[in-house]
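It would be a great kindness if you could assist me with a short task in structural biology. I am sending you one protein, given as its amino acid sequence and as whole-number tokens for its backbone shapes. I would ask you to consider whether the tokens describe a fold that such a sequence might reasonably adopt. The full record is reproduced below for your convenience.
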Amino acid sequence: MSEYVQGYIERARKARALAESWTQEDADRAVEAIARAVYDNAEELARLAVDETGMGVYEDKVAKNRNKARLVLADLAGKMSVGVIARHPDEGITEVASPVGVVAAITPVTNPIVTPMSNAMFALKGRNAIVITPHHRAVRSSTRTVELINAHLEAVGVPSGIVQIIGEHSRENTRELISLADVVIATGGMGMVQAAYSSGRPALGVGAGNVQCIIDSDADIDEAIPMVVAGRAFDNGIICAAEQSLIFPAEKKDSIVGALTRSGAFVLGPAPGAPGAADYGEAKIDPSAALRAAIFTEDGMNRHLVGQSVQAVARAAGLADLGIDVPADVRIIAVFADGPGVADSLSGEKMCPVLTLYPYGTFEEAVAIARANLEFEGKGHTVSIHSRNEAHIEYAGLNLPVSRVLVNQSSATSAGGSEYNGLAATNTLGCGSWGGNSISENLTYRHLLNISRIAYRLDASRFQGSVLG
């Protein structure tokens, strides 16, 4: 083992030992300092992230930095993580929390600010230390985030070394770090997630996103469609929880296309006024085929289009050469698919502002389309449904392999927790065994606690007559 990585672990263990004596108030003060560091410096960090990674939208990253700092802090407020954290007298159980130790966190290029922030907040909430290893394309922005976090932590008396970030980034250093830590959090590509699971340490990872959005026949189209477009457009489509496909009643196609257009979508395919293959004379070039070829390569999603603008996607697809002018104010491109699942690569995750469209006949068919797309990619992640029909909502929940079903909300801004639901506020969304993950819920501070359960003796008569004997 290298002395370089060992040094990070030793500093983290020393700082964690000092935090052992923290009260709940001490832990909460540290958590607030982390949130404040990102909230107060949202503009600087957003600018740095866009300039370094070449992905996303500055204004959206500012909003993300502020909103996530605020939401995670609010979600953690008042929750116990030190000492006795719960008493269950009817069960005779008292829960006592202890730190897990040193957390290693692998963070992604798509979220180089808020993922380190939330992971650090979860770690310190439980009196743990954390060492972050950032994506190689986001080292400067993630490092600046940690610098600001540490400045705020120092101001409230938190020992140095409790939040660190690897300075010399390499795969070897990352592998060594995750092999020495007590717990690993992996947020990002499946390669690093799989490496975390094979590290020999307890690991918490995430699966691929490919959020399916179902519009029920009773949904308010003028309320739902703006949410879908806003979610798909946010930060140029790099949010893993953003809507990827729109599955809607076939009889409402014209209304859906109209609402998409009014909300800033440019629609390609078989719909009134939408450019399609028949519009291009003898060549009959299908613009959806050009789009498909631009977004996907033999290796998967074209990395040069990740987090890029609508105009960049249109240029890559050569839409102008086909006589298709995509206006500058368009927020997303919406395209009709040839079919669900393996029938069309557009069924998969597109980390750019492109939405795939699927009309359906019955609600059961809508769920079948969503399931086929999830089996193709994104199994275990999230589905969004706009509906007032509780039976349909529960049918989707019972028949789709996902960890989250968002109802009448924008998935992009709500799957990771929001004011509109009770999901834990986070940037790391577990996908269960469907997605090859150890958790099927939103990662939060409780996943970084060891919980001892004091079990008091109870009257055995409570079981009499209720079991076989």
Summary: Confidence is low (pLDDT under 50) at residues 277-283.
